[in-house]
Prior knowledge:
This is CAPSL protein. With 209 residues, the protein is mainly α.
Amino acid sequence: xxxxxxxxxxxxxxxxxxxxxxxxxxxxxxxxxxxxxxxxxxxxxxxxxxxxxxxxxxxxxxxxxxxxxxxxxxxxxxxxxxxxxxxxxxxxxxxxxxxxxxxxxxxxxxxxxxxxxxxxxxxxxxxxxxxxxxxxxxxxxxxxxxxxxxxxxxxxxxxxxxxxxxxxxxxxxxxxxxxxxxxxxxxxxxxxxxxxxxxxxxxxxxxxx
Length: 209
């Protein structure tokens, strides 16, 4: 776990639950329901949709959309789901692009925050191919400091895998982290941090940037 993120995660989840009772905006309600599950909440919904998308069209019709929400155990009325779907189905053709959906669902972040997140990603992505793998981590992340490695419970690879799992979706861990997943994860963390300055300091410390 990255320094600080577990605490922020808890704070953010509590905050999201609290705000849920106050908001009437359907998209905001869905966003808060995701964030109430922690930083990986939005990404997890993305994975649920990806599983729904049988034909790999990267789009969902209303039926798939509702099934994805239900599979992910989102508490949502049919009317509210219809309203959200309408908001995202910009051209009214009965399907939504789920990448666009996830980007809109992600808590908005300033340019400064996005830049520091990308700096951290680039530092991890040793090979520069836009995906972080265990191989990439060998060069940047020292597993030997990990308590489970020190007491012999885990191998170096297990430490790396656990590290990647932080950013990966809880339901479909493939041991690879894309820019999008990394961004989604930190959008969750970012939601619990009020000022850009503090967020940037936290990122710099965590990633030694």
